[in-house]
Amino acid sequence: MFWKQKFTGLKTLYLDNNAILKIENLDGQEHLHSLYLSRNLITKIENLEALAKLEVLDLSNNNISTLSGLPPLLSLKVLNVAKNKLQKKEDLQSITSCVCLLSVDLAENMISSVSALEPIFSLPLRQLRIEGNPLQEGIDHCKNHILSHHGLHIANLDGLPV
Question: How high does pLDDT run on average in the chain?
Answer without folding.
Answer: 92
